[in-house]
Amino acid sequence: MTSRYQSFDDPAAAAPPGARPGAERLAALRRVLAQHGLSGFIVPRADEHQGEYVPAGEERLAWLTGFSGSAGTAVVLENEAAVVVDGRYVIQVREQIDTTLFAPVALAQTTPEQWIASHLPEGGALGYDPWLHTDGQVRRMEKAVAEARGTLVAVAENPLDAVWSNRPPQPRAPVRLHPLSVAGETAASKLARLRERLAQAKIDGLIVSDPHNIAWLFNIRGSDVPHTPIALGYALVPATERPTLFLAPDRFDEITASAVSQVADLAPAGTAPEGRPLGAREALAHAIAGLVARAGKAVCIQIDSATGAFALQHTVANAEARFHIADDPLTALKAVKNRREIEGARAAQRRDGTAVTRFLAWVAREAPSGKLTEIDVVEALEGFRRDTGLLVDISFPTIAGANENAALPHYRVTRAGNRPVTPGILLVDSGGQYVDGTTDITRTVAIGTPSPELRDRFTRVLKGHIAVATAVFPKGTSGTQIDPFARRPLWEAGLDFDHGTGHGVGSFLSVHEGPQRISRLGGVALEAGMILSNEPGYYREGHYGIRIENLLVVEDRQVPGADRPVLGFETITLAPIDRSLVAVSLLSDGERAWLNAYHDRVRNTLAAHVDDETRAWLASATAPL
């Protein structure tokens, strides 16, 4: 069995320092910087849409440094350089970069801005690409450079691109229609709701820079980046005119083009002075200028604070319009799923739960042999999902960590580091992309007989998971207020975990969707129809990791005697939780009843969809405690 959607190669991690990417590329970049009078340059792990996944041709940080994580920033100066990463990647970055060239820096100790302020030579000119940074990021960099008495310089062309030979081309994958049967709302209806928001805010036009929002608004999907079905581009939505979608028309088949053309114009439109077709950025500028000309008055264009490139401010200003930086209203609209999207999510979870249950039964059969490896686990799970016949992609690279690797919350197995599945713990965090829904599930299973410590820690994580799943709360409650529910059983033993308890999940879109989340930073109020993960964990570095993750739908609740509207959660993920890891004495009667009821539901829903051998295992795995 092989993986169709995930690679296990990581040449940088396996290579000795002298053979890793860095020396020649770094020297070439420094030569270009010197030619332009720059003392340094900032290389973020970002494209112009600030996406979690980016095309191969936008992986500048990985190309320059060898670091392949999903977040990080390099700062290159004349005589030194650093790569700043968050806590997920402090080990990985040291394995992948040449530390004789780049200093690995932990974000928890030093931010990129702090490193710049303390290392930029006095009076130095620090360059940045304004298409790769948001307004907030640029303001923080300006402050840092000012502390060093230097100058922040926006470059017209990214100097790294000038030295990147054989840079992969920009993606031009086909754009396809997302069926109304699963979208649940027409693009025309969504546009009407958006225009109401723009009118209330007195905004004349919105630049949609987040491709996820474009996909949702126009009911289209693409495949320009791994694991998330989006097409990279922009849209301009005037408050009173037809919107324009800046994706090349030749990427649309006849059916999709016809559907989109009912509500929007397709661009690029127009030509440059030399006669060539306008690129997306130029076409956007041309469209904004046309909107201003037709308005005959001062025009205010909104730019998204989270994904809008700083360069868009100049695009708007050059068209003699005003810009307003704020949250794209589409992000909040997209987060609240309609009836069809929720039905689709439930169907996707049933289908995915069947695949995961077959996988768990397979692990139970095969792991005792001692022959399984982490890669075997990843490939087998993908195979069970492919057997559904409806898998479009995995929703993120599968995390399959055995024992000490399970202690790394965002572990990715490579051929160089592939570990055998030996007695102890196996943690598997995975998900699938189906046309009717996006899934994300984590199961931690015992390999062999678990120790008392493992059972204690697992049960505390389970208690926190149940506390979130059964929470009832008034409307207006945010994820910040729910987050401690998951932590209290761990806190009582002097334990905790360092990631958030839950993130938003899209509808055949990003597995990590905002603005909703359950975390210390989750200040957005939860609303009925939002989908979130519930994934508390515990990690003992160098030994083991535990996480239990299901997806939840926020729903209205009727509480007798309540004097205000109340919300709760429906758990929609369906797969057994390892009973052998549960210390029953630590559970309350209510917690034990919840787990038994959940397992009854899992068994009753999935038993008819699995083979006889798996059905027998499922009956045992979901037996009452």
UniProtKB/TrEMBL annotation:
Q: What Gene3D superfamilies does the database record attribute to this sequence? A: Creatinase/methionine aminopeptidase superfamily, Creatinase/prolidase N-terminal domain
Protein name per Swiss-Prot or TrEMBL: Xaa-Pro aminopeptidase
GO MF annotation: an example: aminopeptidase activity
Disordered: annotated segments? 1-20
Q: Which Pfam families match?
A: Creatinase_N, Creatinase_N_2, Peptidase_M24, Peptidase_M24_C
Enzyme Commission designation: 3.4.11.9
Question: Where is each Creatinase N-terminal domain found?
Answer: 25-153
Q: Protease among the record's keywords?
A: yes
Peptidase M24 C-terminal domain location is 566-625
Low complexity bias: start-end ranges: 11-20
